[in-house]
Design a protein that fits this description.
single chain; 4 helices; 6 strands; 42% helix; 37% strand
């Protein structure tokens, strides 16, 4: 009986360790996407920046102009609001929290900082990442 308790305790610890390692790996994957977005944005590559988003009409973006549905409309809004490299400037994210909601879904809360010739811009965001067809994609974004 004592050996059975040791085995159960060992299995519980092992399962917990695997789950923690998996979550740490997933968070690193999400951070890597956001780093790629910083680079694309800073190169005025808005299409490249949008690669982090779910290419779907169901994508939701909520900002100062209200709710936008869809990848194409979100990209069009970015192009309209940031028409030149002077407008996109250099993007830096500060990630304040990444939390798992459930398997395959995380929310990320943080700050964005744009350094640019037309005037710096700063704000906060909360985005939701979901693993879709083996890739992490932003399915909802609230930025202001």
């Amino acid at each position: 009986m004592k050996n059975l308790l040791y085995i159960i305790a060992f299995l519980a610890f092992s399962i917990s360790s695997v789950a923690q390692n998996s979550e740490a790996r997933e968070k690193k994957e999400i951070i890597a996407i956001m780093k790629a977005q910083e680079k694309a944005w800073s190169n005025h590559d808005l299409e490249g920046f949008m690669e982090g988003y779910w290419k779907s009409d169901s994508l939701k973006f909520y900002g100062s102009n209200g709710l936008t549905y869809g990848w194409d409309k979100t990209l069009a809004n970015y192009k309209r609001g940031y028409p030149t490299k002077n407008h996109t400037g250099t993007l830096k994210f500060k990630i304040n929290d990444i939390s798992k909601v459930r398997k395959g879904v995380y929310f990320v809360m943080g700050e964005y900082h744009l350094t640019r010739e037309v005037g710096d811009a700063n704000g906060v965001f909360m985005i939701i990442f979901k693993k879709i067809k083996g890739e992490w994609k932003i399915i909802a974004d609230t930025s202001c």
